[in-house]
Amino acid sequence: MKVIDERKLKEKFIVGTEKDFYRNIKKYDESMIPVMKARGYTCIRSAERTVAFTFGEFCFSRRKWKRGSEWYSPVDEWLGLDKNSRYSKELIYQIAELSTMMSYDHVVKVVQMMYHVKITKPTVIKTVKFADQLRNQYEEYQYYQEEVKKKDKIKADIIFVEGDGVFLRVLDEENKAGYRDFAHFVIHTGSKKIEKNRWKLENKKSIMSISNRHAREMVLDYLYQNFEITENTILITNSDGGHGYTPYVFKEFAKVLGIKRHEHFWDEFHVYKEIDQTYKGYSDDLKNKLYQSIQTHDKKLLRTVLDTTESLLTSAEEENFSKFSKKFLRNFQYTKPLELRGFRYLPIGIMESQHRKITYRMKKRGMIWSQTGAESMTNMILLSKAGQLRELFFGEWRKEYQEYKAAEELTAATIKVRQNHIKKDYQFYSLKKRW
């Protein structure tokens, strides 16, 4: 028996889908005739429109209505179509979602293979730019919301903030490729076990920006707007101590928010990594004593180990070891174990795993990004992984945002009109020459 080609079978089903689609369009368009007449609209003509949906591309005809200078198409509104758009909102969203998983060229191939819709790479780029525009609008909307509504803030005894940089290859102002450090901060309130050997961070918020300063400002804004800070709130921070992630950066968070108890940790993974790299080739006894000085938080023992090591150095090794020694002595207080600070367990040291979702998409196959494109994609990936990208495209916030903007424009226009009707008495003063 000959096996049917599934692609041909699918084509038959697509034909059936087309007939159903056109039948539904016609039925809805005709059902709106008495409604539109009752609203005072006049049917001017029927016009064709071609739109790509997730179930195929269709050219369909629908009635265009007019009332005064206002044009209206019930079918377009029913389908949720924007004026002059060739793609449905759902398809645009799915293109955006796919772009967080694969290259733009692969998105084009997948859409054509799965949806039978032809798009181009510029369409994907335009979609990513649109998503970034929505993200900027959402940030603005949150400020409107903060002014209008007092939302319930998160109540947590401990707030965790970690920070680290992700190096991505981007083009500079002269169009030359180079690596830039993208600031990445993660805020959460602890972890919860969801299945065997799998934990989930609670109230997690990831923040990324090409500007470390801007990222820090966003962290402070988010903490201020979303957390209830009390006298008993504890801030736990963790980093590798690199530029932009020093203890003083995190101390500033505690100071601005008025948090009295702040515990900063020098990331354990990076501490032991530096020890292993520096003491490679030296006796295990020295290295183990250095570990012991950290585990018991014994600075005297640390000095003894460092002095002993220094006596064994060659002249070529002295400069690098001097930097290592000074760094450890300066930051030793941040290596104090959590048990000695009164904690049994803290979910810290998460940044490497949090970076993975970014690096998997953006550092493969020698990718080079524009600075704007890289920032847009990093934030889209974070939203997608948090399950919030659909909300960005279809959430109720978009309607509320437009209402806020309309009210803002109306207020500005009203003020301008009133000012135009106020008689103004301008007094001009002569200017004396000064020699």
Automatic annotation (TrEMBL):
Protein name: Transposase
